[in-house]
Records
---
Amino acid sequence: MATSELVDLLLGLIAPKEIINNFRVVKIVESKGAITIVFEEKTDRIPSELLCKEVVLDGFLNTLELQTFPLKDKTVYFAIKRRRWKEKTAEGKSYSNSYELHDQGMKTTKEFGAFLKEELGLQPNEYNELWRSLTDQG
C-alpha cells in the first residue's frame, strides 16, 4: 500500500467523511497540550451558484475550529478553512459552500459532541476542564 493511501486511511479513522470528502490536510501542528490538523477546502468544490461559469478563488472565510476526540493524551482540533469564490468577470459578490460540520452551539465535530452529551453528560468546556485535570495540561 502506498504512503498516501495509508495517510488517507489513517485520516479516515480520525476525521468525519464530510471533512475528508471536501477538504484536504495542509498542515499538522503539535504543541505541548494539543494537536491541530489544518484543512483547506478542495479547489474543485465550486459553489452551485457558479457552476458552468468561469470562476476564480477569492481567499478564505474565517477558519472554523472544531474539537474532536483526543489523541496521544492531547486535545485535537480541526482547523477548517472554507474557500470564497467569485465569477471571474464580476465585481464584488463572493460565494462559498456550506457544510454541516457541527451542531449549532457546539464547537466540536458532530460525533464528538454527541459522545460528550450522550455518554458523559458534558458540554465541551466541562469536558476540557475534566481533561486538563486528568492530563495535567493546566
---
Amino acid sequence: MNKTILLGRLTKSPEIKFSQANNVKIATFSLAVNRKYTKKGEESQADFFNIITFSKLADFVEKFLNQGTQVCISGRLQTRNYEDKNGIRRYVTEVIAEEIDFADSYTKLEGNTDNTQETVSNNLNEKNTQEDFISNGDDLPF
C-alpha cells in the first residue's frame, strides 16, 4: 500500500503548468511539515515535500491555496528519474496529492477580503458535515 498523509503549510504560492501531451493542468508546490520532536535547546525543524496535483484538484489549488495556507494532504509517494543537461541521471521523490483539506481555522479563512470565503464555504459544504450524520440518524464515531 502506498499512502501518505501530511499536515503542513505551503512555502510559496503554487506554480501552474500544463502537460505537453494532453494539456492537463498541473499544480506544484512545496509543503513544510514540522517534525514532532526536537532536541533540547534547538529550534523546531521541518521537512519540505514537493506536492503535485492534476486536473480538478489543480484547479482547486490554483484558486484557493497560497503561501502560508495550512492544509492536510493525502496521496501517494512517487519516484521518477530524468537526465539533466549534463547527462547525469537525477531521481526525484514527490507526493501525488489525491485529497486536500483546509487545516487553518475558520477565522483565518474568513479574513479573506475578496469573497473567496463564500466560494470556499460552498466547496466545503459539498462534503458530508457532522450535521449530515446527525440528521441521518447515524452514530458518530466519537
---
Amino acid sequence: MSVRSMAAAESRPTERVILGIDPGTTVMGFGVLLEQGRAITLLDAGAIRFPSADDHTLKLREIFNRTLAIIEQHKPDELAIEAQFFGKNVQSMLKLGRAQGVAIAAALHRDIAVVEYAPKRVKQAVTGNGNATKEQVAAMLLGILRVAGLPPSTDATDAIAVAVCHHFSRNNAVQKGGGVARGSSDWGAFVRNNPTRLKDP
C-alpha cells in the first residue's frame, strides 16, 4: 500500500453499528445506528410487542430470540441498553430486570460489548435535561438524526435515544482519552474482568 493510500485509509471515519434497546416484557423498543466518525445514521427502529397472555418465561425466551434476530440482521458492534429504574411496584421491577438481563445475555452470546445507561443520563445526553418528557426526547432526535419522522412508539424512540446517548458518550470518551461515561455500566468490561464468575458451577 502506498503512503497516499495509507493516509486516505486512516482519514476515513471508522464505522460502527450501535444497537439500542429499551427493554420490557410487554413491549421492547430497538434502534440501530450506523456510526461513521462523529456522524450517525438511523438504520432501523421499531417496537416488538409480546402477547399479554403469554407466560412470563415464554416472553423471556421471545425477548432473547428477537434480540438475537436483530443482532443477526444488523451485526452491531455494541449494545446500549436502558438501565432499570426504581419504582414502587416490586413485581414490575423484577420483570423489567429479567427482560433487561435476557437482552444483555443475547448480546453477550454473540460476544457483543454491552453498556447500560440510566434513563436520566439518556435524557440529559439527548435533550440537555435529565427530566425531559418522552415527547421532548423524540423531538430532539429528529434534529440530531436529521430525519423527517420516527416510529410512533415511544419505546422505539427511547431505544434510539439510548443508542444516540452511547454515540455521544463514546465520542466524549475518545476525546478525553477513554473511559466509560458517568451514569453508565460497561457489562462487557465486567465479563472480561471476571471470566471465572460466568462459568457453570
